[in-house]
Design a protein that fits this description.
The complex is a heterodimer of chains A (about 450) and B (about 425). Chain A is α/β, with parallel strands linked by helices and about 450 residues long. Chain A has 19 helices and 17 strands. Chain A has helices spanning about 20-25, 35-40, 65-75, 90-100, 110-120, 145-160, 175-185, 205-210, 230, 245-260, 285-290, 295-300, 320-335, 345-350, 355-370, 390, 410-425, 430-435, 440-450, and strands spanning about 5-10, 30-35, 50-55, 80-85, 105, 125-130, 165-170, 195, 210-215, 225, 235-240, 260-265, 270, 275-280, 305-310, 340, 375. In chain A, strand 12 and strand 13 form a beta hairpin. Classes of the chains: A alpha/beta (about 450), B mainly alpha (about 425).
């Protein structure tokens, strides 16, 4: 849709139209005003206009009518704009749901209407999401680049056995997805897939989560509990972040793997288990073996086969596929009609460093779908860089401009430096250049804020 | 040097009063471990794994010491004044000083100490010659007892305050006591009793000459009761009344009413509208406590729409607000919510949040009601995860606490659910 070709059909009181006709003309739309709801419906289904503007204050306009018109118009890629003399929550929600935009207040103001129209008029260059393209949740490994193809081949090669597999790679690269793919491609596919995160579960609970417990084994052990090993019997047990386990538990895990039986806490009776282990770590486990914090024998037992998952920045050829995959997934989930992703958005996504890999991308697209107006995800819908903490699962506030209004300047500075360092992967010189300060000044600030101490040699 | 975690700080430093403010300050500076930001375990982080900003606390130490000094001067001063008044055989003034000391403790974030000063003031009321001056002290004492979940003490104090106020025709105090009694009935889920008590309060509010905040609190509270009873249209009407009577232009009042509106919409399963109402309320609110409540409600509304990432982000904001704003007692509630979010996102280890919530309730000696609520939420999570035996055990513990507190409707609700499960 381009300038100068469209129609805007409006049903609005004369005294509420404000600057509507002028703005329409300015952006190249023909303002067609009708006086009643029945007149408005004439021809709307056979020749839907590019834009309809419905005033919720006009007699005969109700939710049913709005829905009917929205269906007809959006089937032809058109847009519905809603206005109201007294905005209410109910109508604001309807406007967001049906038009993907805000409820315009009456009389129509130049600024509000202009923003809404401009945003929708320009269909950006980019990638259109095919009609009916619905990505099933967790549909598996997405991407057809060389690196992903190598992973797919490796999964096919290793999956069809019971060998223990160690998955390595940065956080968010999709290790659990690969573990599931290994499970599904193995003869155990009809058995259970059970996962546990060894770094998330507090140490005192981890043993009983692994092996289960008998009633009364310790305070709080109110009933008998089956551990994850037992629950995974006949299937696959995925041990995520295995490198964070204590040495004591490592010894117990090793014994279980060697003897192929578990002892519930509080019991001396061994229970045989048939479990395939897939372990994962975002640490360099060999280094931990050398420094003595990870058992050498356990490492070799876990790493019978080793698969490395590349970070997203090393497989950017898959970015487009991933974005389209997540965009269709979330627009389906939220009932939004996202039709495509603009080139500007892609440019921004390609320029990002992706410290959180595919998990970060998924979160970014999730929010972009929620922010999206007018059917296309654009650059402005993306929360990246400065907003990183707001998207991170680990938390952080994001209010005005990414910070709480209670935040001190010092805290903002500290956070911003940390973000820039993340962006440059800890390279001080690059961070100093972005921040526009001397490297020594940055070093002093980094020390003062206790941000990092491990990148001293990285220039 | 890796900054220490909150867990490590708690393990290292003994629980002694003298460094209490320091430990609290360390806690408020704690931030999520950025190195785990994008890992699975990062999604399951709680306050214990947050990293404490030691250099910042070290820099701010002189300021903290100043604050401690000012605070001690206030509490010491009020304590001395209380003693001197008592020596003059003026227990009424003595109690007022103790209440001021309580207020000083409260504003310093020391709720238990505030409660102890209030208790001391309440004990003095037996020696009051001017009984009329006892009502304010008793009402404060009742509020403190209610906040700690000691409902029986709260009830006795409100009753006594009501008796005295009625006898001397002190309408504002009688209204406050009657509203307090109504609120206690709400806490225990005794809806009809609550409405009856609010009706009594209404009569006193009409009698009072001065403007009372109870005037708009009453329809607001009745709206809550109506919502709990499932009378959602009535809940909206009462809320409209509250809106009409509330002071205009006060942001915090707008936040309270907006939050209540969101809750009614949520109960009506109009979750998108509820989301917008909570967002508006959040923009209006500034107090950490209120912001945690509203953000939690917003996260819940988002979760109900399947927007689990957004729900997580907002729940994490609530967590952050609770930590920075020193309203740690609200964290168990936030962690129960994050547990539900993690469950919705298919985390096998979502139970970690509930375990942490229980641990926190224990560690911070939070009111038992808080523990019961977490146990109930935990049991629901375990039940959905197919761990029926563990769920039953936690439900039984929750029932024991509710019963001990006299929260009969909760006991009936949980026992009823147990019975229907067994009969299936």
């Amino acid at each position: 849709m381009g300038h100068g070709r469209g129609r805007l059909r409006a049903l609005i009181e004369v005294n509420a139209r404000g600057e509507g006709p002028d703005v329409a003309q300015e952006v190249g739309l023909r303002w067609e005003e009708v006086s009643s709801a029945s007149a408005f419906l004439v021809g709307i289904e056979s020749h839907p206009p590019e834009f309809v503007l419905l005033s919720l204050g006009k007699e005969g306009v109700d939710e049913e009518l709005v829905r009917r018109i929205a269906e007809a118009v959006s089937a032809e890629d058109g847009s519905v704009l809603l206005s109201a003399p007294r905005p209410s929550l109910e109508w604001a929600v309807l406007a967001r749901r049906l038009s993907g935009g805000s409820l315009l207040s009456e009389p129509l103001s130049r600024e509000e209407l202009f923003t809404e129209l401009e945003y929708r008029l320009e269909e950006p260059e980019g990638v259109r999401i095919a009609d009916g393209e619905v990505a099933p949740e967790g549909s598996g490994l997405v991407g057809s680049g060389a690196a992903m193809m190598e992973i797919v081949r490796a999964v096919a090669r290793v999956g069809d056995s019971s060998a223990t597999v160690l998955l390595t790679g940065e956080s968010g690269t999709g290790k659990e997805l690969v573990a599931r793919a290994l499970h599904w491609s193995s003869p155990r596919r009809d058995g259970p897939f059970v996962a546990i995160n060894c770094a998330a579960v507090p140490e005192p609970l981890l043993e009983s989560e692994f092996f289960g417990h008998e009633r009364g084994a310790f305070t709080g052990a109110v009933g008998r509990k089956r551990g994850r090993f037992e629950r995974a019997d006949g299937g696959t047990l995925f041990l995520d972040e295995v490198g964070d386990m204590s040495l004591v538990l490592q010894a117990k895990l090793l014994r279980t793997l060697e003897e192929r039986e578990v002892e519930r806490v509080g019991s001396e009776k061994g229970l045989p288990v048939d479990v395939r282990i897939v372990a994962a770590t975002n640490r360099i486990l060999r280094e931990r073996v050398v420094e003595g914090s990870f058992r050498d024998d356990l490492f070799h037992r876990l790493a019978v086969a080793e698969l490395h998952l590349p970070p997203l920045r090393e497989r950017m050829e898959d970015l487009e596929e991933l974005v389209v995959h997540f965009a269709s997934l979330f627009s389906e989930r939220y009932g939004r009609s996202v039709r495509g992703v603009g080139e500007g958005a892609f440019r921004r996504l390609r320029a990002h460093h992706w410290p959180g890999n595919v998990r970060e991308l998924r979160n970014v697209v999730d929010r972009a779908v929620l922010n999206c107006r007018g059917g296309w995800i654009r650059e402005g819908d993306l929360k990246l860089n400065g907003d990183v903490s707001a998207l991170s699962p680990g938390g952080g506030t994001n209010e005005i401009g990414g910070y709480s209004p209670n935040t001190s300047l010092e805290e903002v500075e500290r956070d911003h430096i940390a973000r820039v360092l993340d962006h440059t992967d800890g390279v001080m010189q690059a961070a100093a250049e972005i921040l526009g300060i001397h490297r020594n000044t940055l070093t002093r600030k980094v020390e003062r804020y206790g941000l990092r101490s491990d990148e001293g040699g990285r220039q | 040097m890796k900054p220490p975690t909150v867990d490590e700080i708690r393990e290292l430093l003994p629980e002694v009063d003298s460094i209490g403010p320091l430990v609290e300050r360390l806690l408020t500076t704690a931030r999520p471990d950025r190195s785990r930001r994008w890992s699975t375990s990062g999604e399951l982080q709680t306050i214990g794994s947050r990293l404490v900003d030691l250099p910042r606390v070290a820099r701010e130490l002189p300021l903290l010491l100043d604050e401690v000094r000012t605070h001690l001067e206030r509490t010491y001063g009020e304590s001395m004044a209380a003693l001197e008044a008592l020596a003059r055989e003026d227990p009424e003034t003595s109690a007022e000083h103790l209440l001021r000391a309580a207020e000083a403790e409260r504003s310093f974030g020391r709720m238990r100490e505030a409660g102890a000063f209030t208790e001391a003031a309440v004990r003095l009321t037996h020696r009051f010659r001017e009984r009329g001056r006892a009502t304010a002290v008793l009402i404060e004492g009742a509020r403190a007892a209610r906040a700690e979940g000691r409902w029986r003490d709260a009830e006795a104090r409100y009753r006594e305050a009501s008796r005295i106020a009625t006898a001397i025709g002190d309408a504002p105090s009688a209204a406050r006591a009657a509203v307090g009694l109504g609120n206690l009935a709400v806490d225990r889920g005794l809806w009809q009793l609550a409405l009856e008590r609010y009706r009594g309060a209404e009569r006193w509010v009409k009698t009072a000459r001065e403007p009372l905040s109870e005037r708009w609190h009453l329809p607001l509270n009745r709206s809550i009761v109506a919502r709990e009873q499932g009378r959602l249209r009535d809940a909206e009407k009462e809320l409209e009344r509250a809106r009409a009577l509330a002071p205009l232009g006060e942001a915090e009042v707008g936040a309270v009413l907006g939050n209540a509106h969101g809750q009614v919409l949520r109960a009506r399963e109009r979750t998108e509208e509820a989301e917008l109402a909570f967002r508006d309320a959040l923009e209006l609110s500034s107090g950490a406590d209120a912001r945690v409540t509203i953000a939690s409600n917003l996260a819940d509304a988002l979760l109900a729409q399947g927007k689990d990432h957004e729900a997580e982000r907002v729940a994490r904001e609530a967590e952050d607000e609770a930590v920075r704003g020193s309203v740690v007692p609200r964290l168990p509630e936030v962690y129960s919510l994050l547990g539900r979010v993690a469950e919705a996102r298919g985390h096998a280890d979502a139970f970690v949040f509930f375990e942490r919530a229980l641990e926190l309730a224990e560690q911070r000696k939070l009111p038992r009601l808080e523990r019961a609520r977490v146990l109930e939420a935990y049991a629901e999570h375990l039940r959905r995860s197919g761990e029926e035996e563990a769920a039953e055990a936690r439900t039984a513990r929750a029932i024991r606490i509710y019963r001990a507190l006299g929260y009969d409707s909760a006991v009936q609700r949980l026992e009823g659910a147990n019975d229907s499960r067994r009969s299936r």
